[in-house]
Amino acid sequence: MKRTVAVVDYGMGNLRSVSQAVIHVAAGTGFDVAITADPDVIRAAERVVLPGQGAMRDCMAELAASGAKEAVLEAAATKPLLGVCVGMQMLLDHSEEQDTPGLGLIPGRVQRFRLEGRLQEDGSRYKVPQMGWNRVHQSRAHPVWDGIPDDSWFYFVHSFYATTGSPEHAAGETDYGLRFTCAVARDNIFATQFHPEKSAALGLALYRNFLHWSP
């Protein structure tokens, strides 16, 4: 019997690019990929991917409206779950963006970049949203980092960044005007602020590692 990875479709964000990347790395592995908001399919899946892009309040509202929220919370308690971009921010306690509560699965908060008037080393202004490639420092070893060199480049698009309530939950850090957490991990949960699906071969390697991770 084939195993299933559920990519949660709640009508927001980077669903197509995430699902295509997961389908690509799942080929030949024995996994089926289900793009779904059906709670029963999410509950039956072996592992779950939670994408997200746009305003966090909208993402949280649409996740609840889709009927998938409770199934995602159940999945986060029992099976490997990967959050991507706003999908990572949603796992934390709270976001400054429109004063939005998160799912509270990992202690932490989401804050807006305050870089007005700041200059980068080359003399250019910091732009918000940040759009581009950053080196990611692996704060600690983790199976989802397997085979990915420390300080590798990953692609970011975001105006808000995460701060964790406890350093033990920080799995990756990067710099854009300040050092901030760009990957979090706890038990069976791993999540990234950057977009692995837009990060070439190393991003696909991260998705592949997630498929084979046994927390």
What does this structure look like?
The protein has 215 residues and is α/β, with parallel strands linked by helices. The chain has helices at 15-26, 39-44, 56-65, 69-78, 86-89, 200-212, and strands spanning 3-8, 31-36, 47-50, 81-84, 94-95, 100-101, 108-112, 130-138, 152-158, 160-164, 170-175, 179-186, 189-192. The radius of gyration is 16 Å and the shape is globular.
Question: Runs with pLDDT <50, length 5+?
Answer: none
Strand percent estimate? 25-35%
**Averaging pLDDT over every residue, what do you get?**
95
By secondary-structure content and strand pairing, the structural class works out as alpha/beta
* String of helices and strands: EHEHEHHEHEEEEEEEEEH
Rg computed from alpha carbons, rounded to a whole number of angstroms? 16 Å
Q: What separation lies between the terminal Cα atoms? A: 21 Å
Q: State the total count of DSSP E strands.
A: 13
Shape: globular
Task: Tell me the number of helical segments per DSSP (H or I, 4 or more residues long).
Answer: 6
Kindly report the spatial arrangement of strands forming the biggest sheet: 2-1-3-4-13-12-11-8-9
Largest beta-sheet characterization:
9 strands, mixed
Helix content: 25-40%
Q: Main attributes?
A:
alpha/beta, four-stranded mixed β-sheet, 6 helices, GATASE
